[in-house]
Every structure is written in C-alpha cells, then in structure tokens.
Amino acid sequence: MMMLGLGSVGLVLLSLAVQSGHGAQDSAVWSREETTERNYYTRYHNMSEITAWMEQMKRENPDVVSSMVYGQTYERRNITLLKIGLSSTVRKKAIWMDCGIHAREWIAPAFCQYFVREILRTYKTDTKVNEMMKNLDFYITPVLNVDGYIYSWHNESTRLWRKSRSPGTGGCTCYGTDLNRNFYANWGMVGVSTDCCNLFYCGTKALSESEAWAVTDMLGKMREDILAFLTIHSYGQQLLVPYGHPNTSAPNHDELMEVGLGAAMAIKAVHGMDYTVGTSPDILYPFLGSSQDFARLIGIPLSFTFELRDKGEHGFELPEDQIQPTCEEAYAGAQHIITYTHDKAFYSYAATVTATLWTTLLAAWVSSAILL
C-alpha cells in the first residue's frame, strides 16, 4: 500500500496493487479514497493548507496545471495563481477568477478550490469541459488577500477581519485597506471611507495596495485575451454586474444581465437557492473602486461578482456543512457564464441561439426571478 500526503492538509490518497481475486479489497480502498477527498472539500482550510493543495494540484496534473507568482502582499507574501488549460500552439483566450479578496469570506477560497477540483475531475470525460480546456486557460487565484486571510485564522477575535494588513498613515493607528475599493475605477467617489479605521477604507490613493496593483498589472497585460472576469465573495446570494456608480451602465448591460440571470437559473436548479442579479446600486448599495468595475472599464466584456451564501443567517461564518451545496450551485452558475463566454468567442452563432433561448425563458421567469 502506498500513501500520499498532501502536506499539512491531511488529504490522504491510498492505492493498492491489485492481485487476481482481490477486487473487493481494491474497491474498499478506493471507496475510502473518494470519501477522504470529498471530505477535504467540505472543510475550510488555512493558508498553509491551501498552498500545499496548490502544489499537489500541479504534481497530480502536470500537463494542465502550472502556477505563477504575480505579486506580493504588504507583508511580503506571494500572491499565486493556478493556470489551468490544455497546451496549445496558438495564443489562447482566458478566464480570470479570484477568491478571498476579503479575508473573512472563507467560503470564497473554498469555492476556488472546489472549482479547480471539478474542472480537473471532469475535463477528460466531459466533452464540453475538454473543449473549453483546449480553447481557454483558467487563471485562478484561490486567496488574493493572503495577509488578511492568514490574520482571520489567528483566533476568534480576528475571524471577521476584512481588509488587507497594511498600516494606516498620517497618525492613524488602524490597519488595512478594503482591497475592493482600491482599484482605479472611479476611485474614492462613492461607497467608500477615507477613515483608515473604517471597513470600507479605500486607501490613500488608487492602487495604494500591492495586492490591487498585482491584479491590475496582470489584467492589463492580459486584457486582450481575458473574456470573462469572475471575482468570488460572500455573502448575500447575489450576482453583481458593472457598474457600482448609480448613474453609469456598462455598454453591454443587457448582455450582462441576460447572462447573469441565466447563471441564477442554473444556480437555483441545483438546490433551489435564489440569487439576485443586478448592479450594486440597484440591489445592494453603490460603491466604486472595485475590481469588477476595473475589469469592465479596461475592456473585459463579461465581469461578474458572485456573492455566495447565505442571506444573513450565518453571514461570513457559514457553517462547514453548507460548503458543498454552496460550491455545487455556484459551480453551476460559473459554468453557465464560462460556457456562454466560450461559445460566443468560438461559435458566435451558437451563442446567439443560446441568448435567444435564454431571452425566451426569462420572459416567463423574470417576474419571480429576483431581478430588482
């Protein structure tokens, strides 16, 4: 018997040399493996465990998974993404996904891990996923706000930490900037605070935070290739589309809404959960300086913010028994967006047909579909 440990994560995979007449024993061993792996994705994991998991994904899938350090945090920790896709001789289009920009939203990194597991689990047998892996590369950052995420794991008093961990300036003794208010997208105008002790502190200037700068730099280099930008948050069960300004709409607002409503339908079909779709001024509150708005402003056509479960009963402390159903439904929503994005880019006629179908379905559904 051979045991492979995933660093400090504790995920143990077992394999057994099968001899004639020992099929039942082999079956039992693999049943244990499946249970163990499944249990891994039903728990929250600290940063060292996630880092070990990222390394394991590369080792187990060397042909399709690589990693890239594309920035450093204030405390000089690496910001790392996984690049997932089948090799190609031509320049590929891309999907961006980041999780954990707000430290206390633990369900977000859990979803990024689940998403990676699912596409790696299915691409060899699911023809559509395989096709998308040939045509697209997925750039996935499981934890963007590494300093803040680590701090949120220290003890109960730090569990709800939201911001980065950079120190205040000008005599302010508080720490941290809200990274999702720090992007160069109408920075500092609406829905932010200039008080460094406030949860929504936007920083001293746009891109004052190295984490926001790292994302900005990557998106700038790749903007001609990125077809969709997905940033994962919690909570509220919402799909937000640009822009956060109350008087500004994205040039493709109708398309964003149509695709978002289709994703909400896909989410609802899994466990019956309702997700509200719209701009933040319409369904949440106006705020500027977000990564979603920046992505759309630089020309990435499809930009969405996922606000995962729940609607406030547990809030940021979503119980672990809700990780799996939350990830299952969010995966369905993300898959809808990514499939639409792929088909529009590579099969424009199919995308047009799909859009027409969704328009027909939505006409009957919109009255009860949580669109505000």
Descriptors:
372 residues; alpha/beta; eight-stranded mixed β-sheet; 10 strands; globular; metalloprotease; metal-binding; hydrolase; Carboxypeptidase O
Descriptive account of the structure:
The protein is α/β, with parallel strands linked by helices and 372 residues long. 40% of the residues lie in helices and 16% in strands. It contains 11 helices and 10 strands. The chain has an 8-stranded mixed beta sheet with strand order 3-4-6-5-7-10-8-9, with helices on both faces. A two-stranded antiparallel ribbon has the order 1-2. The longest helix is centred in the C-terminal third of the chain and has 24 residues, at 323-346. It is globular. Residues 1-35, 349-353 and 355-372 have low confidence and may be disordered.
Provide a short characterization of the protein structure.
This protein is of the alpha/beta class. Helix content is 40%, strand content 16%.
Give me the strand/helix succession.
Answer: EEHHEEEHHEHHEEHEHHEHH
Return Rg in Å.
21 Å
Strand line-up of the largest beta sheet = 3-4-6-5-7-10-8-9
Distance between the termini: 57 Å
Based on Cα principal axes, name the global outline: globular
Q: How many distinct helices? A: 11
Indicate the mean pLDDT: 87
Poorly predicted runs: 1-35, 349-353, 355-372
Number of strands: 10
- DSSP strand content: 15-25%
Sketch the major β-sheet.
Answer: 8 strands, mixed
Helix vs. strand class: alpha/beta
* Percent of residues in helices: 40-55%
Signal peptide: 1-23
Active site: 307 (proton donor/acceptor)
Family: Belongs to the peptidase M14 family.
Domain Peptidase M14: 43-341
